[in-house]
Amino acid sequence: MSAQYFRFIARTPADPRRSSLLEQLLARADTFVSSSDWRVDAFRVIAPQAATMPAVAAAALYADRGAMEAVWVCIAAPVHYLAEMNNVRLAPEGMPTLRPDEAEALALDFNRVWSDSGTRLLAGRSAVLYCIFDRALQVTTRDPEDAVGRHIEEYLPVGGGAPLLKQLMSEIEMWLFEHPVNGARAAQGLAPITGLWLWGGGTAITSLPAIQGFCAGNDVFFNAFTRQAAGGGVIVMPDVPGSDAWREAESRWLKPAVAQLSEGVISRLDLSAGARCCSVSARALLRFWRRRKPWWEWFA
Description:
By secondary structure, the protein is of the alpha/beta class. The chain is built from seven helices and twelve strands.
């Protein structure tokens, strides 16, 4: 029997609001477990047993632009850093969204500055930036979402190819300083793009693996899989629980999933945020005596 995997943001806003249904599910759930990579766990819900999960950037690039001449690719996410006395922090609101014209302008200028370097920047149709390399890199990267509000040092790339990637990230910071795109953003009262966070890298692919289920919500990886089919589902809810946008998504996705769980249509709900995940079964729904608490306390 299939399952549904829900991913949501666990950061606590300055003025958090309660979420009754989510808190009920968290209170009645089975034991929380640590998750080193939530996308790997979520992919298992919708993928056949033998399917190999592609790299985040490879799947996104193929879905965006089709098969391309590329050896290795990573996401180049725009970020806003805060420089402190001895550290650099990714700002709490440090993942600004680019407009398509801004992404195209950055890609064009990057490729002028780094011409003949074996590296180029490509703007996707949805303004996602991809950094494409003419050689493979042995490196492990982290989603910038993990570093929001934190010092970035422990979230930077590691592995044999890490020095090259970190050097490029540092050079990009200097390139972006007083860049015309940032000048235009400042005139509009928008935060500057102070860096491009390179992550999700892997070998480029020429096809996506088949899935047995559906994907919904908003995620750079799972957006690549659009086919609807019988089976499990992955729903990425990018809104903070309790917000107006969350309540709309809750009505559309979470409430129907709870009904399917109680009716035996699906076997479990997985609730994932930060580095933690828990499962809720139909039997767990009967644990009405468990005390609820604010959703953010489960992820403190």
